[in-house]
Predict the 3D structure of the following.
Amino acid sequence: MNVRITTLAERPELADLVWDMPDSWPEFMDHDPISWSMFGLVTADPEYTVVATDESGTLVGHGHSVPFSRALPGRGGDLPDTGWDQVLMWANSDLRKKVAPDTISAVEISVHTGHQGKGLSGLLVTALRDNARAKGFGEMFAPVRPSAKHLEPRTPMSEYAYRTRKDGLPADPWLRVHVRAGGEIVKIAPASMVIPGSLAQWREWTGLPFDTDGPVELPFALSTVHCDTVQDSAVYVEPNVWVRHAL
Ligand SMILES: CC(C)(COP(=O)(O)OP(=O)(O)OC[C@H]1O[C@@H](n2cnc3c(N)ncnc32)[C@H](O)[C@@H]1OP(=O)(O)O)[C@@H](O)C(=O)NCCC(=O)NCCS
């Protein structure tokens, strides 16, 4: 497949299609309140989004990154344990207060469901890296959601993320793409995304009964969901992996 990748700023006519492209995010992940309230705001600058089209002009993938400050007092200077959600909150606050960024993080890469498995994801990672470098950053971070972790939701991420194949590359396919593109695993973000809901909501999102207290395994979840039948609520805390790309 011949793919053309540019920033969204170079092809603004694709902006509406980005939200409508068929992707494979599990339904329950659409209910992270931080994403709901902030993702659209912090990714509104088309200079930080990359889009991929095939020969026919169909949008086959996109990637988003956001600039923010880590050095601001109170932020600790390090990558946050609260990964993805924290990046969205800091980026949102910095936008409002016009704080100069010192850091850039990729926050999402999605490939069209009909075009997965063709090596597109690595091209999008490289495009986000190139774009970050062009914007003057010396490194790009990413709170990565390992794509095969859902097959063993009870394994600690701290163990899973560091598994390697014989060739030394990560065993997980999506971490492997990042490392092959020049990334290195820095640390775990144990509470990267938090999704709370009533048991009725979780039943609606997943079709599962949510009728027993304790950890519940969910298709495509990277860890278990904590179900509390006494309080009638459940919470999913997703661990991610911080990857650093030197540029
Ligand atoms: C994760 C995602 C971006 C990967 O995109 P993709 O273009 O389909 O992946 P690629 O074809 O580039 O393959 C990447 C690696 O995964 C492997 N892979 C692809 N599909 C796979 C599958 N179904 N099962 C196992 N491995 C798979 C490939 O073999 C490749 O590894 P290798 O090059 O070392 O062999 C895509 O599946 C997606 O959009 N998922 C939903 C959104 C998401 O989770 N995004 C990432 C978090 S931000």
About this structure: The mean pLDDT is 97. Residues 111 and 120 are 7 Å apart (CA to CA). The first helix runs from residue 15 to 20. The longest strand covers residues 183-198.
